[in-house]
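Researcher: I need the complex structure. Ligand is zinc ion. Inputs:
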Amino acid sequence: MFKSFPVDCLNNAEIKLDGLIYLNNDELDKLLKITPKTYNNFMKPFMELQFVINEFYVPVSHMNLVNDSELSRQVYPMVLMKITKYFTELMQREDIYLALKEISKTELNIIEKKVIDDNILKFELSGVHLEADQKNRIKDMSLKLAELSDQYSKNLLDATNEFELKLKDDTYIKSMPESDKSLALQPDKSYIFTLQAPSYISFMTYCDNRDLRKEIYKAYMTRAVNNSKLIEEILSLRKEMAEILGYKNYADMNNVSMSAKSVDDVILFLEELAVKGKPFALKELADTQEFGKKLGIDNVESFDLAFINNLIKKEKLGFVEEDFLPYFESRNVTDGLLKFLSKLFDIQFVKVENVEVWDDEVVVYDLLIDNNPHARLFLDLYNRKSKRGGAWMNDWHTYRLDGDGNEYFSSAFIVANFPPPKDGKPSLLKHSDVTTLFHEAGHVIHHILSKVNEGYLSGVNGVEWDAIEFPSQFIENFAYEKKVLELFAKDFNTGKAIPDEMIDKLIKNKNFGSAMQLLRQTEFALFDMLVHQSDYSYAEVKGILNKVREKVAVILPPDYTSFENSFSHIFAGGYAAGYYSYKWAEMLSADAYLQFSEAGVFDKELARRFFDNILSRGAEETMDNLFFNFAGRKPDPEALLKTTGLL
Ligand SMILES: [Zn+2]
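Model: Output:
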């Protein structure tokens, strides 16, 4: 049934892992000798071998994130290195690739065929099928690209750390929240602001001196000019790599692992968003300009937006985050979230006592479907010293049947850093914490509600990159629904339900400035998609960005800016030709959510369809198909404008 969490997993972890890898390689040798190879005699046991490694690795990496210790710091890097080496070498093995090719010619059902095809594609993207010299070239290029990305990040970091703006007192930052101010305060009572995101954003929002805003903005937007050379090299290598692997360009190559059917589809989608969002963004800008005039700013520029909009927001919405705290006591929120999921999808969460966990605060639930145990969920929600910051979901076991028909249950963790209850005071959450929790719960149910028999395509495994945020963003929407908030948003002192006006405020606050935000994301995504179509020179890259802006943006930044030199998502992170994923997944989630909202949220038939076609299906089919099966049509980009209050 359920395996308990191995709290001692760090002890002798390296030796245990060496043992597992040794046994795996031995087993793999035996599998490779089988003739003729079939799905059942090779692929099934081959996949089980990888699950064994993964299920060993997850708790070790998890402990490193949630229980930092002398031991974890010593053990984790070694384990990570061995795991990376193991999987890298596995993907280079031509004998496995040939075995997959052999099996692809046998008779397979649709799901088996997808498992094999997806695996073959993965191997081919690492160049395993090429001639030796090309194979070596791919390897060299991969290393070089990693080096260039790293250099790009370093240049950006250096440039970010180079700049400081010093204020001798708080004359120009009077309205800044004390918490932000205290971070900038120096022993001599002066204030220092930097280009680190929290400091920069706070300054741009609250500094009422326009020249100072302009000064820090200019420094921010001209960071890392030395990255322009790297951009050329990165684009050139990506283009060459794509061509060797048989694709027209990098964007096309990346598209094969996505749910969007083609690069053209993505571009059309983004252009449509730009066209539809623009009139609303122009209206938002007009409001900003009008308010700006009252402040004596006749020509609003990019460096005025955050400042003016914050004042408008204050005047129009009167949104004060602290007012909401009493309604979101953390245990109420957690219970309410599980109640909501149970009610919507007709499932049950049953608290499990007396199981071993890594910290006393961890709460464990079993998920029951039709009264049968199906998965286990671990919640570790409170901040503590030994835990990494932020919030995330991590999947551990995956639902599947092995070759002998044995059923494996799934499991997942939600980790967050909410304030713990202290000295008899409850843990009260901001509404943004509530949405975070809902978001991660969306990832969790996508994983643990899976009923896919093939582990490789079960839960979040194998889901295309531009669809992975679909269920999480879908669930996040419900944190603003009255019918859902009714389940738990009660004042922890009086038990009084959150008033409707306050829910309205939450929604208005979320939607404020959403059109300009939409266009900004669209601008970045379109630039990313276009720039990855060839080995452009730096001048051409700038030209592409300018053209995109002329089409999309409602306010053009000054000529001196060089945003491309700090767009690390695509030049140093994993989002190359994939930045659009944020909006793409949001379109799917907005469309699905609207159907629920319009049907009054708790609609049994609709929920069943969502469960049967999306949540329980993992990557059995492409998300494109799964969505079509659910909705009976393609997703509608306009949904995105509706959920942000524009339509
Ligand atoms: Zn997410």
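Model: Summary of the prediction. The mean pLDDT is 97.
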